[in-house]
């Protein structure tokens, strides 16, 4: 089972979250690749069994421009059996806290087999570790179910 974490980060917060999630998948001995979105071969999206999207939020609760190609790829490719997770950082001082995570969550729920979502206030801290672990566990559990069913 091939897992990808694909993220966008302007000031490094979401990058830190993506690296943390990556290390948690590796601790569970999962074959996981980490990509900045501008280095992700979007045409290979459907080749992954599970994909975690990591995004910051911009404007008024919006998805960053550089994530839109990936967003549209989920909408247009046949990825209905792909296990996914939507994660991101944001700032609750804005009216639409982590709005980009909400947008990805809603789309991934329709297009894929969404297993978990995760919102982190600005940058992951020690108090967030348990929630990050739960997020990774939910995805790994969904993958294990898939393996057990042999599909
Ligand atoms: C111009 C601007 C608009 C933002 N809009 C939102 C927003 O609508 N909702 C939100 O939760 N965070 C918003 N943020 C906060 C960022 O999403 C947050 O700082 C995030 O952690 C940045 O991630 P990065 O360091 O990976 O780039 C905004 C930040 C800036 C500078």
Low-confidence stretches: none
What's the overall geometry? globular
Q: Number of helix segments?
A: 4
Q: Which bin fits the share of residues in helices?
A: 25-40%
Describe this structure in words.
The chain has 151 residues and is an alpha/beta fold. The protein has one domain (3-149): Rossmann fold. Helices cover 38% and strands 22% of the residues. The protein has 4 helices and 5 strands, in the order βαββαβαβα. Strands 2-1-3-4-5 form a 5-stranded parallel sheet, sandwiched between helices. Helix 1 (13-27) crosses helix 4. It starts with a strand and ends with a helix. The model has no long low-confidence stretch (mean pLDDT 97). The structure holds flavin mononucleotide. Flavin mononucleotide binds next to helix 1 and strand 4. Residues 9-15, 56-61, 89-91, 94, 96-99, 122 line the site of flavin mononucleotide. Low-potential electron donor to a number of redox enzymes. Belongs to the flavodoxin family. Keywords: Electron transport, Flavoprotein, FMN, Transport. InterPro entries: Flavodoxin, Flavodoxin/NO_synth, Flavodoxin_CS, Flavoprotein-like_sf.
Key structural traits:
single chain; 151 residues; alpha/beta; Rossmann fold; five-stranded parallel beta sheet; 4 helices; 22% strand; binds flavin mononucleotide; electron transfer activity; oxidoreductase activity, acting on NAD(P)H; flavoprotein; transport
């Amino acid at each position: 089972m091939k897992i990808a974490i694909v993220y966008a980060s302007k000031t490094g917060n979401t990058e830190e979250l993506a690296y943390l999630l990556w290390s948690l998948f590796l601790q569970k001995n999962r074959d996981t690749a980490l990509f900045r979105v501008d280095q992700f071969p979007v045409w290979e999206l459907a080749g992954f069994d599970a994909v975690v999207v990591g995004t910051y939020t911009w404007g008024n609760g919006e998805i960053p421009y550089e994530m839109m190609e990936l967003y549209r790829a989920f909408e247009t490719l046949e990825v209905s059996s792909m296990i996914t997770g939507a994660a991101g950082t944001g700032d609750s001082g804005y009216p639409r806290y982590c709005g980009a995570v909400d947008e990805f969550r809603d789309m991934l729920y329709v297009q894929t087999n969404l297993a978990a979502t995760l919102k982190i206030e600005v940058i992951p801290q020690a108090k967030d570790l348990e929630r990050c672990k739960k997020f990774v566990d939910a995805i790994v559990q969904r993958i294990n179910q898939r393996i057990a069913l042999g599909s």
